[in-house]
Automatic annotation (TrEMBL):
Coiled coil: none annotated. Signal peptide: none annotated. This is DUF707 domain-containing protein. Pfam families: DUF707 (PF05212). The lineage of its organism: Bacteria, Pseudomonadati, Pseudomonadota, Alphaproteobacteria, Sphingomonadales.
Length: 298
């Protein structure tokens, strides 16, 4: 571990993990690597900067246990990125990921998805016109969270297992959430595994855990959770700010025009059309704080 590295990449790793490729290249890293192993393969532990964590749980319950057992990490690092192990990423892009988060004082962010990715949400696909897009939604796949914000958000994670539903609230539980969460388009990653597949979903099945039910339960515990994922502003490649209406209009047209390039063109077309409608009906949308519902004790 290098004392000057102010960022941490925490990745849950199995036998087929792609994290080794993230270490390739001559560039110096601005991040340390923490491996959290869920498989029995002894070779997985190679390459980490911090002592190996072994936890046979699923991603987010394991992360919660690790952070509560190691609270000093929140003092040691400025940002922690919680990565899935099926992502194609370069060391240079990971460095830039953290740089952009710091440059724009983001509380939570994620890289955009390369067009070759398997995807669930078209809003995450890389939009070449922008450096970053401000959004009310950040997926659980590879979020970077500032440790300042993570301290206050950690209690919200205490009952989370699958992570489904957490991505609907964690960009919004902070005070004044506008312009503090973003999809970063300057860099992109390739998601190599189809949606709802892999070891973590096998674990959900074994535990008879329904991610859909967990999302419904988590969402019902907060007031004001938006029912749509909305881009409400952006910064273009020259560093200029773009309004929500402008970026939604341009982003929607890009999705429609390039739908044939993506793995699921119909999904991209539907999302592009919905985004174009929101550019007209919600041109001035700004996210508001969501609040945990306090149930009265019996």
């Amino acid at each position: 571990m290098t004392g000057s590295r102010r960022n941490l990449v925490l990745v849950r790793v199995g036998a087929k993990s792609l994290h080794r490729d993230w270490l390739e290249g001559p560039e110096e890293r601005n991040w340390d690597l923490q491996l959290s192993q869920y498989d029995d393969d002894p070779d997985i532990c190679k390459g980490g900067d911090l002592p190996l964590s072994v936890d046979k749980g699923t991603k987010w319950d394991s992360i919660y246990r690790y952070l509560t057992a190691n609270p000093d990490l929140l003092d040691r690092y400025d940002y922690i990125a919680f990565m899935d192990d099926d992502l194609i990423f370069t060391k240079r892009d990971l460095n830039r990921y953290f740089e952009i988060c710091a440059e724009h004082n983001l509380r939570i962010a994620q890289p955009s998805l390369h067009r070759d990715s398997h995807f669930c949400y078209s809003i995450l696909l890389q939009f070449p016109r922008t450096k970053l897009r401000y959004t009310n939604f950040v997926e659980c796949m590879a979020p970077a969270i500032s440790t300042e914000y993570l301290r206050s958000f950690l209690p919200h994670m205490s009952q989370v297992i699958s992570g489904w539903g957490m991505d609907l609230i964690w960009a919004l539980t902070m005070p004044n959430p506008a312009f503090k969460s973003a999809i970063i388009d300057e860099i992109s990653m390739v998601h190599t595994r189809p949606h709802a597949t892999g070891a973590v979903y096998d674990a959900f099945s074994e535990k008879r855990l329904s991610p859909e039910q967990e999302m419904k339960r988590l969402k019902s515990g907060y007031s004001g959770v938006p029912d749509k994922m909305v881009v409400y502003g952006a910064i273009d490649r020259e560093g200029n700010r773009m309004s929500g209406a402008t970026v939604q209009r341009l982003n929607s047209l890009s999705l429609l025009a390039n739908s044939w390039r993506y793995r699921e063109p119909v999904r991209a077309i539907r999302s592009g059309a919905a985004m174009l409608l929101r550019a007209i009906t919600q041109p001035s949308y700004v996210p508001q704080t969501v609040h945990k519902i306090q149930h009265e004790s019996a």
